[in-house]
Design goal:
Blueprint lengths: L1 E5 L3 H13 L4 E6 L11 H6 L12 H6 L2 E5 L3 E5 L4 E4 L4 E3 L2 E4 L3 E3 L11 E2 L3 H11 L5 E4 L3 H11 L5 E5 L11 H12 L3 E5 L5 E3 L2 E4 L2 E4 L2 E4 L3 E3 L2 H5 L8 E3 L10 E3 L4 E3 L7 H15 L12 E6 L2 E7 L9 E7 L4 E8 L2 E8 L5 H10 L7 H5 L21 E3 L4 E2 H9 L5 H8 L9 H15 L4
Parallel strand pairs: 1-2, 1-7, 2-3, 7-19, 9-16, 10-11, 10-16, 11-12, 18-20
Antiparallel strand pairs: 4-5, 5-6, 8-17, 13-14, 14-15, 21-22, 22-25, 23-24, 24-25, 26-27
Length: about 475
């Protein structure tokens, strides 16, 4: 089998490694438009903040490809898919035949048609990140246009460098897709404690050398970062005649309407949904790898959990967060002085949405309950505050956590898998991470994984 993968980002690189793990003999070629090895895009805000270097967010080392018999063509853009001869063609004229083709082209940053927008830098790729870091070294103040997840991460990263930052957001509150108005307001206040100024309900009319214009008002800045969302890269698929709506349309096997072509990650549209988070991309890569190598796996969609964990900012949001009391049972706790907000959305006795802002020992419990979709215990207060007497049936403690509980949502790693890995000889966090990939996504499960490993060592009297 000759497998060609277009895209060497988080989805494409995972697909390649999943296929190679199942089939050591397939001929695999992966094309990456960017000139370097794949990296964890989720952690770019850490690079922006200076707490991580580019080498610390790499997903695969350069030597991995040769060691696993994979041909990686980096810095090469595929410009055409010839479905008649089953080959892809790069911009420099290289022609690569395929038996199976996987599109993992990802997304591109949305650049709004604002006068002077060329003066701004999008926040999307490692190259973008390096440009922003270089500009920040000489900047006096920065503006981030867009207050969604990417905008919040960009602002947090720049603030981490000690740069005064203003976030300008068109909607009425930050991260309006994931958060309700109260949570968005409190997130803004938390960012304010880091020195970030939040302006919501404002529209940018122009960008000049002096800064960002809001009609007659000027917000001074010598660094402007765009975080206005992303759109799937589908032009290549559309030119090849594949079905494209918002993304490249795929079925439960991740196949397009051409049975020899698959699509995974942010460019793929499954059952009317385009996912923009890493966990669904990696789930899709595993399913597609199974099918490509002769398995019978099916993708049934993903339950999304948005996580943000950084200095002074800890957030988890999942499911239908915007429902109110007339639509569902809503349990809420708010303490603005401490930046704490917790909201449960319950329908038919099951958790269908939640927001947790601020430090909370309830995150693991609620994520498990949301992911499993099972009936909730009657003690709602115990769900929000697991330390209370009679707290919920699922607990963050390794002792009470069932083996089926999912610990790493990015990689679908359960407590049972961590236990099995430990029993096979992986006795510290690094070894467990290498064996299971836990902690290699957004990284928010690191404390939980380390806690399970430490607990297992303690129970068995083993020195880690």
């Amino acid at each position: 089998m000759r497998l060609v993968v277009i895209g060497n980002g988080m989805a494409g690189s995972r697909l390649v490694s999943e296929v190679r793990a199942r089939d050591p003999r397939a001929r695999v070629t992966v094309f990456g438009a960017e000139p370097w090895q794949p990296y964890n895009r989720v952690l770019l805000s850490n690079v922006l903040a200076g707490s991580s270097g580019p080498d610390q967010v790499r997903l695969l080392e350069a030597a991995w490809y040769a060691e696993h018999g994979v041909q990686a063509v980096l810095g090469a853009e595929v410009v055409q898919i010839d479905r008649d001869t089953q080959a892809v063609i790069t911009g420099d004229g290289r022609r690569e035949p395929y038996d199976v083709l996987v599109l993992a082209t990802g997304s591109e940053a949305v650049v709004p048609p604002i006068p002077g927008v060329a003066r701004a830098v999008p926040f999307r790729t490692l190259g973008d990140c390096e440009r922003i870091v270089a500009a920040a070294a000489h900047a006096r103040r920065a503006v981030v246009v867009g207050g969604g997840l990417l905008g919040v991460e960009a602002a947090r990263g720049l603030a981490g460098r000690g740069l005064p930052v203003t976030v300008l957001h068109l909607a009425g509150h930050l991260m309006e897709r994931q958060l309700d108005a109260e949570a968005g307001l409190m997130l803004g206040e938390t960012l304010g404690e880091l020195g970030v100024v939040i302006r919501t309900g404002v529209g940018v009319t122009a960008i000049t050398d002096a800064g960002v214009h809001l009609g007659e008002e000027l917000v001074e800045a010598d660094l402007v970062v765009l975080a206005c969302g992303v759109r799937p890269l589908t032009a290549l698929a559309a030119q090849a005649g594949l079905e494209v709506r918002r993304g490249v349309v795929v079925d439960d096997e991740l196949r397009t309407d051409d049975p020899s072509i698959f699509a995974v990650g942010e460019c793929a549209e499954h059952d009317g949904t385009v996912y923009g988070l890493v966990a669904p991309a990696w789930e899709q890569a595993a399913v597609a790898a199974d099918v490509i190598t002769g398995g019978k796996a099916r993708y049934r969609g993903s339950r999304l959990v948005t996580r943000l964990k950084a200095r002074s900012v800890e957030l988890a949001a999942m499911g239908e967060t915007h429902l109110e009391e007339d639509q569902a049972e809503v349990v809420r706790f708010s303490h603005r002085a401490r930046g704490t907000y917790r909201k449960l959305v319950i329908r038919d006795g099951r958790l269908v949405g939640a927001i947790l802002l601020g430090e909370s020992d309830a995150v693991g419990t609620l994520t498990q309950l949301y992911d499993r979709g099972g009936p909730l215990p009657g003690d709602r207060a115990g769900l929000l505050f697991p330390g209370l007497a009679g707290a919920g049936a699922v607990a963050d403690s390794p002792v009470r956590m069932p083996d089926a509980a999912k610990v790493c949502h990015c990689n679908n790693v359960t407590k049972g898998q961590i236990r099995a890995c430990w029993e096979a000889g992986a006795r510290d966090l690094a070894a467990v991470s290498a064996a299971t990939r836990a902690t290699t996504g957004c990284g928010t499960c690191r404390d939980a994984v380390e806690g399970i490993v430490d607990w297992l060592c303690e129970q068995e009297g083993v020195n880690a």
